[in-house]
Design a protein that fits this description.
mainly beta; eight-stranded antiparallel beta sheet; 14 strands
């Protein structure tokens, strides 16, 4: 996996896979008043209209993204355009006066079936409305692989914002040359009782 940092000031991201212990997320308690979200836009080849939902967590600690058709495939008779799928979210978080927040960390879950020689990639860009800077985190997977996958991206709680959040997540699959006649795939969904993508906040009182 790899991490690209365009500026240390905006988001210094740490890519973690598997078991995750969040470092130093001490901060204010979540606001007692319920936060609300305005989903400004959801678009991309991995989230056609009606196939993704964004909902705030009941305890004000973040929001949940549910995908129903986020699948990248390559190899066999699959069309060449299917190897990369993405979904970009633009979310405006309405928070009580006197608070700011940061993305403390985000959890991603899905399923993969990668043939021997195939590879997969999950990449997520994080950036904020009005800022020219963005940063991405890569998580790489190698075949043979069949089952569920999970990743976590963490960011320092000191990077606090109070405006739109933009998150662009993509999946890529490379069929390789060993079993190019077989289909490999990665999805952003675990099962019908899916484990969703969850973005966690850290709060600070002004």
């Amino acid at each position: 996996m790899s991490v690209r940092l365009t500026t240390a000031r905006l988001l210094s991201l740490i890519a973690l896979t598997g078991v995750f212990v969040l470092p130093g997320t001490a901060g204010a308690e979540a606001p007692p008043d319920r936060i609300t979200l305005d989903v400004v836009s959801i678009n991309g080849s991995g989230c056609s209209p009606g196939t993704a939902d964004v909902t705030p967590l009941a305890d004000n600690t973040g929001f949940r993204v549910t995908y129903r058709d986020f699948l990248a495939r390559a190899g066999g008779s699959v069309a060449a355009t299917e190897f990369r799928k993405n979904c970009q979210l633009n979310v405006l978080v309405h928070i009580p006066q006197g608070f700011t927040f940061a993305i403390a960390y985000a959890d991603y879950h899905g399923r993969a079936r990668l043939e021997s020689g195939a590879s997969g990639l999950q990449r997520t860009n994080y950036y904020f409305q009005g800022s020219p800077d963005n940063n991405y985190v890569d998580h790489s997977f190698a075949g043979p692989l069949s089952g569920t996958w999970s990743t976590t991206d963490a960011t320092p709680v000191s990077e606090l914002v109070s405006r739109n959040i933009n998150i662009n997540t993509e999946l890529r699959v490379d069929e390789g040359t060993t079993n190019a006649n077989k289909t490999s795939a990665m999805s952003m969904r675990v099962s019908d009782g899916n484990v969703d993508t969850i973005v966690h906040f850290s709060w600070k009182q002004c």
